[in-house]
Amino acid sequence: MKAFVVDKYKKKGALRLANLPEPQLKDNDILVRIQATAVNQLDSKVREGEFKLILPYRPPFVLGHDLAGTVAKVGSRVKRFRVGDEVYARPRDHRVGTFAEYIAIDEADVALKPSNLSMSEAASIPLVGLTAWQALVEVGKVKPGQKVFIQAGSGGVGTFAIQLAKHLGATVATTTSAKNVELARSLGADVVIDYKTQDFEKILSGYDLVLNSQDPKTLEKSLGVLKPGGRLISISGPPDPAFAKELGLNLFLKLVLRLLSRGVRKKAKRLGIAYSFLFMRAEGRQLGEIARLIEQGVIRPVVDKVFPFEKTGDALAYLETGRAKGKVVIAVAD
């Protein structure tokens, strides 16, 4: 099979197209013929080695965290899927590699593709959908009437999270550039802030939850818009001790992560705010819930561009410009 591999950790550069053997199936695995995948900021960070401490991939490895495709084979213990099923998924860490024609994936990470989406549309959903679900439903437990601030409303996570927060009954604020204000409003945002000309810290107050995806300065400013008892969830760091414990990291790494997040945790505690770092995980059951919302018309995908498979490197470069609205998708096969 053809796949794009990372030969060494580096900041920029094209991925190498290679011929690799078809993946071997474990008993609980399904083999998926990938028809579409998508690029994420996580792909850039993994390629650059930013997560080497917690995701020590050994080059050469295949990149990619989203997929939509058709089941080609099933392992001996697989019960939920059959050959020919159309599925979508975010493979679990240490088994990623969706910039390829095929992947072996544990059936627990997989769900049936939303029936009303194309393969390209479905491939845009798993990573950002699971991130938003785990932040707003699982960790944040957002309830009707609460106020939620979602940063970067025109990005991949933002476009999904706005719609999910509105479905949960929240009043939603977001930041975006002036050209994307109407997009954010069309997704359900009640308050849209032009981050180039306005300061969200001066506009927002008394919020129940902030979903932070930006830099440390924005993270610190976000504390100021939350009310006592509110929650700050960051998907861009810094990792906290709870995350280190969840991963089962060694004592040294636990200490490193504790020190990295010490400043924001102390400030949050002083303000009566809960801080948590979220590194989303693969979860087929949650993707099933998300598929139902999509089929009901509650959430729609936002796809900026679709690149052909041979232009996978260009798709990642385009994402890194920061100009994409929603997701950047790669069509792998018909």
Show the helix and strand layout.
Elements: E1 2-6, E2 16-19, E3 29-39, H1 41-48, E4 61-62, E5 67-74, E6 86-89, E7 102-106, E8 110-112, H2 119-123, H3 126-139, E9 147-150, H4 156-167, E10 171-176, H5 181-186, E11 191-194, H6 200-203, E12 207-212, H7 216-222, E13 226-234, H8 241-247, H9 251-260, H10 262-270, E14 274-277, H11 284-295, E15 303-308, H12 312-319, E16 327-331
Parallel strand pairs: 9-10, 9-12, 10-11, 12-13, 13-14, 15-16
Antiparallel strand pairs: 1-2, 1-4, 3-5, 3-7, 3-16, 5-6, 6-8
Helix pairs in contact: 3-4
Key terms:
single chain, alpha/beta, seven-stranded mixed β-sheet, globular
Secondary-structure content class: alpha/beta
Number of helices: 12
Order of H and E elements: EEEHEEEEEHHEHEHEHEHEHHHEHEHE
Which strand-content bin applies to the residues?
A: 25-35%
Largest sheet: 7 strands, mixed
What overall geometry do the principal axes of the alpha carbons give? globular
CA radius of gyration: 19 Å
The helix content is 25-40%
How far the N terminus sits from the C terminus, by CA atoms, comes to 15 Å
Unreliable stretches covering 5 or more consecutive residues: none
The chain-level mean pLDDT equals 96
- How many β-strand stretches? 16
Domain Enoyl reductase (ER): 13-330
Protein name: NADP-dependent oxidoreductase
